[in-house]
């Protein structure tokens, strides 16, 4: 279950050498074939791994050390350039395999469309699945200029699959008027602008349910994450995002998988965007992966 390391860049810091003994698997989805503004997120997975060398292995947020969790870095799925349909199918098949092996999948994107096949695979295993979604954008379009495979569509696709009342979106501050209206009409749980406070209010109702967490890095204000394809002013701080992960980790929800998407390193010469993404990976590993 490992791809060519030469294709994926370095492995994430402290990754375990043995797939079979690992509880979680980090894998990359280097795809940006459908973006509507600036490409470059296909380079995100490799750079998130590379900058992880600067992380402390102990998290004061979770009060745990990376030695306490066994995780395997499988490298990047070798997705076919320019072919979103085949790429989506390959991702879904790979996640099917991880879940069959009892692994916690932790994906690195790539554009946000890559989350759709992962969520689809998760739903096959967890029919009572709920989605927790951090993002600047609604991602509730049926298509983008006639194309159903778009980074503007993954949350609408999963709403259609599992029911909009099972999808919880936070930090939203951009989208079509029709998207916001649709979410309100169908009872989707869409929270504008903020993450931490509305998240704390809904976590009790999600207690015991399997949760898939998808984080679009542009939920952060551009001051905290300039390295992304579609910047939106008015976002949250990295401090609030980290506090939100702690709130999830301390709650009674059962996080069964996660991803971090839309990191585009070429637009951030300071590298603060991949650096914060690598820290988010650490907190997810330490706060949400159940040790065997």
UniProtKB/TrEMBL annotation:
<feature type="binding site">
    <location>
        <position position="218"/>
    </location>
    <ligand>
        <name>Mn(2+)</name>
    </ligand>
</feature>
<keyword id="KW-0620">Polyamine biosynthesis</keyword>
<dbReference type="Pfam" id="PF00491">
    <property type="entry name" value="Arginase"/>
</dbReference>
<keyword id="KW-0661">Putrescine biosynthesis</keyword>
<keyword id="KW-0464">Manganese</keyword>
<comment type="function">
    <text>Catalyzes the formation of putrescine from agmatine.</text>
</comment>
<feature type="binding site">
    <location>
        <position position="139"/>
    </location>
    <ligand>
        <name>Mn(2+)</name>
    </ligand>
</feature>
<dbReference type="InterPro" id="IPR020855">
    <property type="entry name" value="Ureohydrolase_Mn_BS"/>
</dbReference>
<keyword id="KW-0745">Spermidine biosynthesis</keyword>
<dbReference type="GO" id="GO:0033389">
    <property type="term" value="P:putrescine biosynthetic process from arginine, via agmatine"/>
</dbReference>
<feature type="binding site">
    <location>
        <position position="216"/>
    </location>
    <ligand>
        <name>Mn(2+)</name>
    </ligand>
</feature>
<dbReference type="GO" id="GO:0046872">
    <property type="term" value="F:metal ion binding"/>
</dbReference>
<protein>
    <recommendedName>
        <fullName>Agmatinase</fullName>
        <ecNumber>3.5.3.11</ecNumber>
    </recommendedName>
</protein>
<comment type="similarity">
    <text>Belongs to the arginase family. Agmatinase subfamily.</text>
</comment>
<feature type="binding site">
    <location>
        <position position="135"/>
    </location>
    <ligand>
        <name>Mn(2+)</name>
    </ligand>
</feature>
<dbReference type="GO" id="GO:0008783">
    <property type="term" value="F:agmatinase activity"/>
</dbReference>
<dbReference type="InterPro" id="IPR023696">
    <property type="entry name" value="Ureohydrolase_dom_sf"/>
</dbReference>
<dbReference type="InterPro" id="IPR006035">
    <property type="entry name" value="Ureohydrolase"/>
</dbReference>
<feature type="binding site">
    <location>
        <position position="112"/>
    </location>
    <ligand>
        <name>Mn(2+)</name>
    </ligand>
</feature>
<dbReference type="InterPro" id="IPR005925">
    <property type="entry name" value="Agmatinase-rel"/>
</dbReference>
<comment type="pathway">
    <text>Amine and polyamine biosynthesis; putrescine biosynthesis via agmatine pathway; putrescine from agmatine: step 1/1.</text>
</comment>
<keyword id="KW-0378">Hydrolase</keyword>
<feature type="binding site">
    <location>
        <position position="137"/>
    </location>
    <ligand>
        <name>Mn(2+)</name>
    </ligand>
</feature>
<keyword id="KW-0479">Metal-binding</keyword>
<dbReference type="GO" id="GO:0008295">
    <property type="term" value="P:spermidine biosynthetic process"/>
</dbReference>
């Amino acid at each position: 279950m490992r791809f060519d390391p030469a294709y994926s860049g370095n492995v994430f810091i402290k990754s375990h050498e043995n797939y079979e003994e690992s509880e979680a698997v980090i894998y990359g989805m280097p795809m940006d074939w459908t973006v509507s503004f600036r490409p470059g997120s296909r380079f995100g997975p490799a750079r998130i791994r590379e900058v992880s060398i600067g992380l402390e292995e102990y998290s004061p947020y979770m009060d745990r050390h990376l030695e306490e969790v066994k995780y395997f870095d499988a490298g990047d799925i070798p997705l076919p350039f320019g072919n979103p349909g085949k790429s989506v199918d390959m991702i879904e098949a790979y996640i099917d395999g991880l879940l069959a092996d009892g692994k916690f999948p932790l994906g690195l994107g790539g554009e946000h469309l890559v989350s759709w096949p992962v969520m689809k695979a998760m739903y096959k295993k967890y029919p009572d699945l709920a989605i927790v979604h951090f993002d600047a954008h609604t991602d509730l379009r049926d298509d983008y200029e006639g194309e159903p495979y778009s980074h503007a569509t993954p949350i609408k696709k999963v709403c259609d699959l599992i029911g909009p009342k099972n999808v919880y979106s936070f930090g939203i501050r951009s989208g079509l008027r029709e998207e916001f209206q649709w979410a309100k009409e169908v009872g989707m749980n869409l929270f504008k602008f903020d993450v931490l406070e509305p998240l704390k209010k809904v976590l009790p109702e999600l207690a015991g349910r399997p949760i898939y967490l998808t984080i679009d890095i542009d939920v952060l204000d551009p001051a905290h994450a300039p390295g992304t394809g579609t910047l939106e002013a008015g976002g949250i701080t990295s401090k609030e995002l980290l506090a939100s992960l702690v709130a999830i980790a301390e709650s009674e929800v059962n996080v069964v998988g996660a991803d971090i998407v839309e990191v585009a390193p070429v637009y951030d010469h300071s590298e603060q965007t991949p650096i914060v993404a690598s820290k988010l990976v650490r907190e997810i590993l330490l706060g949400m992966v159940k040790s065997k």
